[in-house]
């Protein structure tokens, strides 16, 4: 009887360990994003070229304000600089927080404009392209 209990507990422990070690990083699907003719999701970059994300990030993420993602903000992520945004792209947080609601659900409902399907389409297209600078 003791042996069965020990074997059962060992198996349960092994399942918990294996399950907790899975790579749970969100991987964005690589699908074309089409919203409307007036929403250009092609050739998006952070700040070079004509179709950029910087202005959207400054407004939507608070980096142009003293809120969510400005230097010294409560979030701890300074989105006034591309390297910080890119690091969050690389670790999966940028996609998962905007589109999957994990680990800290975004967008914050208090921020006007997040309901705009074009803004979300631009974020998805930019992330799908690897967040080019």
- Contiguous helical run count: 5
Dominant shape: globular
Number of domains: 1
User: Could you list the spans in which at least 5 consecutive residues all have pLDDT below 50?
Assistant: 17-35
- Total beta strands: 0
Q: Note the run of SSEs as H and E.
A: HHHHH
- Residues in helix, %: 40-55%
Q: Rounded to an integer, what's the Rg over CA atoms?
A: 20 Å
How far is the N terminus from the C terminus?
Answer: 63 Å
Give the integer mean of the pLDDT values. 72
Largest sheet composition: none
Helix/strand class: mainly alpha
Instruction: Give the DSSP E fraction (strand runs of 2 or more residues).
Output: under 5%
Write down the oligomeric state: single chain
Please provide a brief summary of the model.
With 133 residues, the chain is mainly alpha-helical. It has helices at 2-20, 54-60, 82-90, 93-100, 117-128.
Molecular structure report:
This protein is an all-alpha fold. It has one domain. Helix content is 41%, strand content 0%. The chain contains five helices and no strands. The protein is globular. The model is unreliable at 17-35 (pLDDT under 50).
Write the SSE topology.
Layout (H helix, E strand, L loop, with lengths): L1 H19 L33 H7 L21 H9 L2 H8 L16 H12 L5
């Amino acid at each position: 009887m003791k042996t069965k209990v020990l074997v059962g507990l060992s198996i349960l422990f092994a399942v918990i360990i294996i399950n907790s070690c899975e790579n749970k990083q969100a991987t964005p699907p690589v699908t074309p994003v089409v919203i409307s003719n007036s929403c250009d999701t092609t050739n998006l970059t952070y700040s070079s070229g004509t179709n950029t994300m910087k202005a959207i990030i400054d407004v939507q993420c608070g980096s142009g304000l003293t809120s969510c993602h400005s230097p010294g903000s409560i979030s701890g992520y300074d989105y006034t600089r591309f390297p910080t945004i890119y690091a969050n792209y690389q670790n999966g947080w940028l996609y998962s927080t905007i589109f999957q609601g994990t680990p800290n659900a975004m967008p914050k409902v208090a921020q006007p404009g997040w309901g705009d399907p074009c803004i979300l389409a631009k974020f998805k297209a930019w992330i799908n392209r690897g967040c080019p600078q």
